[in-house]
Amino acid sequence: MKLFILLILLSSIGFTQNSQVTITGKIIDKNGQKVSGELRFVSSSGIIGKTKISSDETYTFACKSGDSYSVTLLNYILDDKDKEINVSPQTEFKEFNRDLKVERLVEGRKIMSFNSFKASDSTFQSSANSFIKELSDFVKSQPNISYNLNINMSDCKFKPIKSKKTVLDGKKKKTITTEVSIQEQSNKVFQARINSIKAVLLENKIRVMSFTFLKDEKPFQATNSISNDKKGEKKNDKSNKKSTSQPNVLITISKIREQ
After folding, report:
1. Which of the four CATH numbers 3.40.140.10, 3.30.450.40, 3.30.1330.60, 3.30.559.10 does domain 110-156+183-256 have?
2. Which of 50, 59, 156, 166 could disulfide-pair with 120, CB 3.0 to 4.6 Å?
3. What is the CATH class of 2-104?
4. What is the DSSP letter of 124?
5. 230 has pLDDT over 50
């Protein structure tokens, strides 16, 4: 009898956590443009659900309660508060209304900037790992986009240096002194930084072929997260100044392929 009661309680708990829920709402473009496409919902357990946006720019998505869902839309970025929807546990069917604000992505748009190298160095800093995680999620949600990854070299302060090397003079060896220019040193560190970032991208399973690596000598203006919320960007900038110096990596959209 006790076992029977326990089974009923467990069944009731399972029902409470997995009751059907329907989320409906309107897709609102921040610039007032018409929005179309297919919303993609990914649950905390990795289950993917999709729903098309109707001609009147509304959507309906059926899901389980007691779970959270990350939301993406091809060629668009959602407001920070709309990127994730948390559905509280329900004991019966319920319908929620949730409007989603979006901004269409355009070529040239800044995605993020962060500091990943110490001055004149090419070792990727672990303090930038959170940005790489955010970048990974964004790239996966926008498979039709290519990016420019600008590496800033203004933090590198080089001076011409003397270098000795041994060369053959006929059958004899002799040591000569050459000068390594500032440009040669800069190019060497730049290439080393590219290799360092490529290794991090591969480690995080981010498509390296989606990126064109460019060299920049002028300091970047901080754009620290993938966001269309200006208040959020200012907040991130402020916190970033406390923990990092001038950003030396800037990622922008170079090309959007229509699908």
Report:
1. 3.30.1330.60
2. 156
3. mainly beta
4. P
5. no
Write down the domain spans for the chain.
2-104, 110-156+183-256
Q: How many CB atoms lie within 10 A of CB 50?
A: 10
**Residue 250 corresponds to which tokens in the numbers above?**
């800037």
Give yes or no for a contact between 181 and 198, defined as CB atoms under 8 angstroms apart.
no
Domain 110-156+183-256 in the same topology as domain 2-104: no
Dist. CA 200–CA 101, nearest whole Å = 32
pTM: 0.77
Chain segment 206-219, per-residue pLDDT in tens: 999 999 999 998 76
pLDDT by residue (tens digit) across 176-223?
A: 777 888 888 899 999 999 999 999 999 999 999 999 999 998 766 655
- CB burial of residue 221 (10 Å; 0-12, 13-18, 19+): exposed
Q: Is pLDDT above 60 for 132?
A: yes
CA 107 to chain CA centroid, Å, is 16
Give the contacts of 73 (CB within 8 A, at least 6 positions apart). 27, 35, 37, 38, 39, 40, 53, 102
Q: Report helix, strand or coil for 219.
A: coil
Quote the CA–CA distance of 65 and 22 in Å, as a whole number.
Answer: 9
Token readout for 71 is: 């939301």
Q: By C-alpha distance, which of 193, 204, 90, 95 is closest to 149?
A: 193
- pLDDT number for residue 19: 73
